[in-house]
Amino acid sequence: MNVLIGQILIGIGMVFVTIGTFSLIKLGDFYTRILITSKVDSMGLITIIFGAMLISGWSFFTAKLAFILLFEMITAPVGTHAVARSAFKSGYQVINYTNPFVQRKNENLDSLGYVRNPEKGERP
Fold first, then answer.
1. Do 74 and 117 share a domain, yes or no?
2. Helices then strands (H, E): number in the chain?
């Protein structure tokens, strides 16, 4: 019975990861892509590891999986936050690449979405 429940959980995790992969193609800008990557990766890995823990039973391997799960739950959000914050601090702006006709014109941004240096009129 545990093997069947574990296989179902692994299947659900694979569905999460697949949906996340296709959503990366569909979504437009960097910040929504990094948010979806973080959430889907975490949910997919959590359900896959829980499924593997149920299949393996109580053993040393289950303790290793629990340690991997704990480590991933701590480091994945911190890493995603660090990447998104560094992009924000470097001046990367949100631009909707999926519909180019809706983009707002802003004199402080160049064609790639970077903030121009107001004194020199160029990117910092």
1. no
2. 3, 0
How far is Cα of residue 13 from the mean position of the Cα atoms in its chain?
A: 15
Q: Hey, what's the torsion of the CAs at 32, 36, 38, 44, to 10 degrees?
A: 180
| H helices present in 27-59, as ranges | 30-56
Asked if residue 78 and residue 33 are part of one domain, the reply reads: yes
Q: Are residues 68 and 26 in the same domain?
A: yes
SS3 content of the chain, % helix, strand, coil (to 5): 70, 5, 25
Domain housing 124:
94-124
pLDDT digits (tens, 9 = 90+) for 64-101: 999 999 998 899 889 988 988 888 888 777 665 555 44
* Same-domain pairing of 16 and 63: yes
- What's the predicted TM-score (pTM) here? 0.68
